TrEMBL record, chains A, B:
Cofactor(s) in the UniProt record: FAD
Native source species: Dysosmobacter welbionis
Residue span(s) of domain Rhodanese: 465-552
Claim: Flavoprotein is one of the keywords in the record: yes
InterPro entries per the UniProt record, alphabetical: FAD-bd_OxRdtase (IPR050260), FAD/NAD-bd_sf (IPR036188), FAD/NAD-binding_dom (IPR023753), FAD/NAD-linked_Rdtase_dimer_sf (IPR016156), Pyr_nucl-diS_OxRdtase_dimer (IPR004099), Rhodanese-like_dom (IPR001763), Rhodanese-like_dom_sf (IPR036873)
Superkingdom per UniProt: Bacteria
GO molecular function: oxidoreductase activity
Family: Belongs to the class-III pyridine nucleotide-disulfide oxidoreductase family.
This protein's name: FAD-dependent oxidoreductase
Keyword annotations: FAD, Flavoprotein, Oxidoreductase, Redox-active center
SMART domains: RHOD
Length: 563, 563
């Protein structure tokens, strides 16, 4: 059996190694367009920032090491230029020599990945304008920085790679401005959770130029002008385009393979394309979202690796199935960690799911043990069924742990009510006796029993201030004095029972505290006295962060105001 | 409704707060024998070590704060001396005044906890001999250390509290010796995994005196002699008994409540005892083990808190059920983290479960990102069904995360084969594209497909060295030279295909590498050439650690050799 693999990074390299382990006699040839195989895609921004100091670290394997261990013929700088499914051949060009040739296959695995989206804008292609996807791109950016010591950079786009690059450029002392049309970074977050990210970036001196449309680029001496719609251009010593990626499926399309959304390659759960004996894996394929069941694209290394293994299994006569992706992701942003799994509220609603949510602000570990920090956790679930849909966490230590617990719960089909029962490991340096995930379960159970009703930051400003409802802030006078929502009256929870007569009878009560816990207790007191009560989920902490984000965006960049 | 709660720490305090949130009108009285309520049991060793500096930190709530927020009447230094289920009353003694009185109840919650096992040995009770369970115990030990500056301590017993205390005393510069009859510390670990813990403790200068029986204690001037069977006594400036805990159920027994193992209180999954309107929670109650279904005792804060909440729900007319405990636990040991969930191999076998296991040594995060460290992960599962039974992890960063993912998988009833499918969050600072938990799943799937067969460290010494089997070490010559198992011949995996003729045909081959990965690849090469092959699970790394642990125990302490 002769297997040809197009693309030697995550999915392709995994498929090659697995194939060899399953079949010692197969001929396995990998064509990789770049000069590197099996490289650490996700490490590239850290090489630019000097966190990863040795270039060798980026290339997990070389063609030589792959040959030695796996007898896989890894041909770098070889580009497959055409697939002929009927003949079961591919046309290949050796980029070093220009030579072209044809190779036959019994089985073909496509792992072409995705390439940075290149907007069709004037000036794309000029000097000092970079993209970041391959080792070569990385080396180019790092070399530029070392030679030219840029003092400023504009990043167009704020996805995972973009945000990682922000951090790494900033840590090098470079003045960083981010510009993009969407009003928030990291699309897997809902806007309220992104507010914490924005705050951290602003604190670290990154300028956020959100809601602005880039219209082109122009050389300006040794610098680059980034042309904006309705606004003066930004000028910087370098620009990186990180607008997003597009499945690199020109080959598949030309070969007549069935395509999915955004030109991705259509595969079934065995990673088989529409053409016999052709498999496809990684960023280039369309997958089912594990939660919504909808078709989706996800550029993540975990799924690519799993899919490569599955394709190899099936090529060797197995029956391995890919269960779908749920988009679990995590990113370090300076000292902060941000993680998501499943779908966010925005996506759930777009998918037509009737969803509810809780926010909580637990400590990463027991408050009495030094070093604990607050995280903000948002859990989204389906109304009525309590099906877990997704979670987002922003914080420091322990964020990645809780997202993986929630990812596992979602994968296993646990209901949101079962989160309270999880028997998680506790010791003071690691967690609390009631882990944040348990706490989310307790809160959702309380909702399910009607013990409390919620309102949300987005509802606060619309509440009537005409006396028709009661607005209570149950924090201490000191906390209240430090900042509070307009129209909310201070009545500390511990005084509530004695001062109950101050709460007007017959009117709904909206209660705020710092994180939502004391206001929940206040709601329980009031509800049992016959009041109709609503608890601000996420508390003042979340509300204030969202409001400050909005204010900062408005003050900093007038164009952020465009429709 | 009047509710009396006996014991105001984890389970009792949680029940009190939940009761109030559910019922604003109930009269809630808590009797707590010690001077503190709702204190941080798990933080006590860290106060002794000065990690937690402020005593106030240990007491999460005070009677005053509980009254202010919850209108719960917390009476410290009040001991309940008798329960009269027929009359629905309890007798109480005020330990401060000596006054006794009787209180009636509608509902009673028992949360008496467990007390340190006091062996019936000569000398128990002498000066400088301590136990550690309450805030008072903690203050006494810390005060002793501050006043007397002990230079040496003997700890009798090596459970969680014992090991935490070892670390804290050691960090104070005290010479620590641990003595106990069992040959390993931390019973939730299997002996092979405990070897890593022992190695760390020895490295930190803790003397392990395992397999030795303590026969008594005797004052020796300002010091204490610890009398040992078949050996000279140990002498130290202080001794702490941390042999274990016993359910504190004298009250329940005297009241005629049905008891379970070790005198624990029998409850159903609603936390109801055998007597009407009496509930019990926490360390004193017998629980079902979630994995084995067997009755068990577990002294852990997480379950106690959950049970307190459940009892309160049911008292208020709800129907909350406790699903059982799976014993998830985590402990910091100097810079190391050790965690377990479910049952270990030893317990599974005792429960009559036919089990199998895998060991792996993955990095905590991507190898190319700085700071990653190796962890050792053992997953135990049922043969044939691939039901997950338990996991143990010893390592550094990320250990607590993986145990919680595995705990969630076990709770959700995922099979060991499904671990490979979990969509976990990956970025270089947090994990690898194939997370350690995924890797365990891949390995177990390989076993299930017959792609590889395993042997284990405990099998190595018994392998014939008479040429009837082939013993291969497929690491590099350098690694082999640094240390290898007797009789194993070096043949690096990358040379195996070329030197295949050196492997005698017709004999089983046992293959070792460092962690088990290269030997797996070698096994795949050999198996496809017709060899019957066995891969050393855990590799040289695990084998060497187990052997060194055995040697160190033998060399250090002759009495460790007793039968």
């Amino acid at each position: 059996m002769k297997v040809i693999i197009v693309g030697g990074v995550a999915g392709g390299a995994t498929a090659a190694a697995r194939l060899r382990r399953l079949d010692e006699t197969a001929e396995i040839v990998v064509f990789e367009r770049s000069g590197y195989v099996s490289y650490a895609n996700c490490g590239l921004p850290y090489y630019i920032g000097g966190v990863i100091t040795d270039k060798e670290e980026l290339t997990l394997q070389t063609p030589e090491s792959f040959w030695q261990r796996f007898r896989v013929d890894m041909r770098v700088r070889h580009e497959v230029t055409a697939i002929h499914p009927a003949e079961k051949t591919v046309d290949v060009r050796n980029l070093a020599t220009g030579e072209t040739f044809t190779e036959s296959y019994d089985k073909l695995v496509l792992s072409p990945g995705a390439r940075p989206t290149q907007p069709a804008l004037p000036g794309v292609g000029i000097d000092r304008l970079f993209t970041l996807r391959t080792v070569e791109d990385t080396l180019k950016i790092r070399e530029f920085i070392e030679q030219h010591h840029p003092r400023s950079a504009v990043l167009a786009g704020g996805g995972f790679i973009g945000v990682e690059l922000m951090e790494n450029l900033r840590e090098l002392g470079i003045d960083v401005t981010v510009v993009q049309r969407p009003r928030q970074l990291l699309n897997p977050l809902d806007a309220d959770m992104a507010a914490f990210l924005h705050a951290k970036l602003r604190q670290k001196g990154v300028r956020l130029h959100l809601g602005c449309t880039v219209e082109g680029f122009a050389a300006n001496g040794d610098r680059v002008n980034v042309l904006l719609k309705n606004e003066a251009p930004l000028t910087a010593d370098m620009v990186v385009l990180a607008i997003g990626v597009t499945p690199d499926t020109g080959l598949a399309k030309a070969a007549g393979l069935e395509l999915g959304i955004k030109g991705s390659i259509l595969v079934n759960d065995r990673m088989e394309t529409s053409a016999p004996d052709i498999y496809a894996v990684g960023d280039a394929v369309q997958v089912k979202h594990f939660v919504t069941g909808q078709d989706t694209l996800l550029s993540l290394a975990g799924p690519a690796n799993k899919q490569g293994r599955i394709a190899a299994d099936n090529i060797c006569g197995g029956d391995s199935r890919y269960p779908g992706s749920q988009g679990s992701s995590v990113i370090k942003v300076f000292d902060m960690t941000i993680a998501t799994t499943g779908v966010n509220e925005k996506t759930a609603k777009q998918a037509g799911i009737d969803c509810d949510k809780v926010y909580l602000s637990p400590m990463s570990h027991a408050g009495y043990y030094p070093g604990g920090k607050v995280m903000t956790l948002k859990v989204v679930f389906e109304k009525g069924t309590y099906r877990l849909l997704g979670a987002q966490i922003v914080g420091y230590e322990g964020v990645d742990k809780r997202i993986d617990v929630l990812a596992t719960a979602i994968h296993a089909g646990l209901s949101a009510l079962q989160l309270k029962d999880l028997d998680l490991a506790y010791a003071p340096p690691y967690s609390s006796a009631k882990d944040p995930v348990n706490m989310a379960g307790f809160m959702i159970e309380n909702l399910s029993h009607g013990l409390v009703e919620q309102f949300f930051p987005e509802d606060v400003d619309a509440l009537p201030r005409d006396g028709s409802v009661t607005l209570l802030d149950v924090r201490t006078p000191g906390e209240y004095a430090d900042g509070h929502a307009e129209g909310f009256v201070n009545l500390p929870v511990d005084d509530l029972r004695e001062r109950l007569r101050e709460v007007p009878v017959g009117k709904p009560v909206y209660v705020i505290c710092q994180s939502g816990l004391r206001s929940y207790i206040a709601c329980r007191i009031l509800a049992q006295q016959g009041f109709k009560c609503y608890n601000l989920s996420g508390g003042w902490r979340l509300y204030e962060t969202v409001v400050r984000d909005r204010t900062a965006a408005q003050e900093a960049w007038p164009c952020g105001m465009e429709k």
